[in-house]
Amino acid sequence: MSDERGLSFNRLAGVKNLKKRIIFLPVVLLFVLLPTLFAQDIPVNEYGLQVVDSPELYQELVRQDSTRRLVDLEKFIPRIHLDIRYATNDNFMGKQLYTVPGAYLRLPAATALKSVQADLKSLNLGLKVYDGYRPYRVTVMMWEPYQDSRYVADPASGSRHNRGCAVDVSLVSLKTGEELPMPTGYDDFSEKAHHSYSDLPDEVLKNRYVLRSIMEKHGFVPISSEWWHYDYQGWKRYYLMDISLTHLAGE
User: Fold this and answer.
1) Do 83 and 9 belong to one domain?
2) Measuring CA to CA, how many Å separate 126 from each of 107, 169, 177?
3) Considering the entire predicted model, what is its pTM?
4) Mapping DSSP to helix (H, G, I), strand (E, B) and coil, where does residue 54 land?
């Protein structure tokens, strides 16, 4: 092949490759920009926060990414105990806030909690769940009478619970089903609920340590002011949600 013919062939191949790149580039840009474009359709509330507030929008987000699915913990995790206080009047608000007594988490967080339960089984212990996913409107209701961000999330920033990435838990004996002694009851807004509080019986300190160490092992992060509250790593990638538990229970 002469140099001239070789040069023409190379030019032709270059043109073909260029056409492929021109066609391929918009496809790549579509996949890169689609999440951003779609995110613009999520409603913005009075605080400038994007909140998913319709079942249809939630389902569309799940179709795009299955890790966004909110999982029913009672069905997903064997022998887990639920004590959903916000579905009763027995809570710090003194009134029913949830229409159904369900506990839900995003799929990755639920999978990690399932591993926590498996680890606890070797100690003849299990988890009791007080709360998981919490609709944003409930966070607004909780904030109005208390407005103390150590214990109640400010609606201006939203809660990890609203993202389906926070869980309130305790330990139970698998033999009796009874909760182990802990520093305080659930939703106790005092220093005794803080992880730093140490003026407690040895048994209570041990139980708090066991819960914390196993939760942290599986990617959960405690907050300083509540021994029962744990956030799952990566919570920032999930949208705030205001979908009712009644809808989730009926899926």
Assistant:
1) no
2) 20, 10, 8
3) 0.83
4) coil
By annotation, the residues acting in catalysis are: 226
HEC sequence for 71-82: EEHHHHCCCCEE
The phi and psi torsions of 51 (rounded to 5 degrees) equal -130, 120
- pLDDT, tens only, 72-116: 999 999 999 999 999 999 999 999 999 999 999 999 999 999 999
Q: What is the DSSP letter of 90?
A: -
| Domain co-membership, 80 together with 142 | yes
Q: What is the CATH number of the domain that holds 215?
A: 3.30.1380.10
Chain length of the chain: 251
What stretches of 147-223 show up as alpha helix (H) in DSSP? 202-217
Report the distance separating Cα 6 and Cα 55, nearest Å.
Answer: 61
| Percentages (nearest 5) of helix, strand, coil residues in the chain | 45, 15, 40
Task: Kindly state whether residue 189 falls inside one of the protein's structural domains.
Answer: yes
Residues 142 and 214 grouped into a single domain: yes
